[in-house]
Amino acid sequence: MSKGNVLIFYGEGKGKTSSALGYGIRAASQGRNVIVIQFLKGKSKDEISFIRRLEPEIRFFRFEKLQENFEALSEEEKQEEAMNIKNGFNFAKKVLVTGECNVLILDEFLGLLDNQVISHEELLALLNAKSEDTELIFTGRNMDADLRQHADEVYHIEAET
Predict the structure, then answer these.
(1) 2-29, pLDDT tens digit by residue?
(2) How many domains does the chain have?
(3) What is the pTM of this model?
(4) Nearby residues of 140 by Cβ (< 8 Å), 6 or more positions away
(5) Could you give the CA distance from residue 106 to residue 36 in angstroms, rounded to a whole number?
């Protein structure tokens, strides 16, 4: 793994999070610090408890409070959760500025752009906060054109049948 890369796993199919976590597990096995921040997925306790078993090598964070996926929420609940998501986004920026990890995985981050929870200006501020020693991994369904130009590697994950 080269240093300082920006990787993107996107597409409608399953496997984006699994691919990003696999990358994180490989990095952790090489002695690198990994942080995962998950967005928009609600709070599935089974998934969280499994991922938490990988700590302290891989630290996992969620800032949303509600159980349901973001898309299933009412408009009022979405506004409430957007504030929690912004806290997660600000934490991600802090992690990048302080160099707290070698690999930062922002799971379902691309959906934040799709749902207009964060702006393109905020995305650029996040990218500018990244040091050359930190790898940044984004996952989500839709590829953002602004983000693509900053990516070193892009993986389109799609089911064939």
Answers:
(1) 456 999 999 998 899 999 999 999 999 9
(2) 1
(3) 0.91
(4) 10, 16, 108, 109, 110, 111, 113, 114
(5) 6
- The pLDDT score that the predictor gives to residue 44 is 59
The verdict on residue 161 lying in a domain is no
Interval 88-111: pLDDT, tens: 999 999 999 999 999 999 999 999
Tokens (6 digits) for 91 = 């934490």
Taking the CB of residue 156, how many other CB atoms lie within 10 A of it?
12
Hey, what are 69's tokens? 């996926």
Q: Is 131 left (phi over 0), alpha (psi -120 to 50) or beta?
A: beta
Residue 56, in any domain of the structure: yes
Closest CA to 141 of 8, 12, 6: 12
Which segments within the chain are labelled E, that is strand?
6-10, 34-38, 58-62, 103-107, 135-140, 153-156
Q: What phi and psi, each to the nearest 5 degrees, are found at residue 133? A: -90, 0
Query: 3-class DSSP state for residue 91?
Result: helix
**Domain containing 133: what range?**
6-156
Q: How many CB atoms lie within 10 A of CB 89?
A: 23
In a domain, 1, yes or no: no
Measure the CA angle with vertex 9, ends 7 and 13; round to 5°: 175
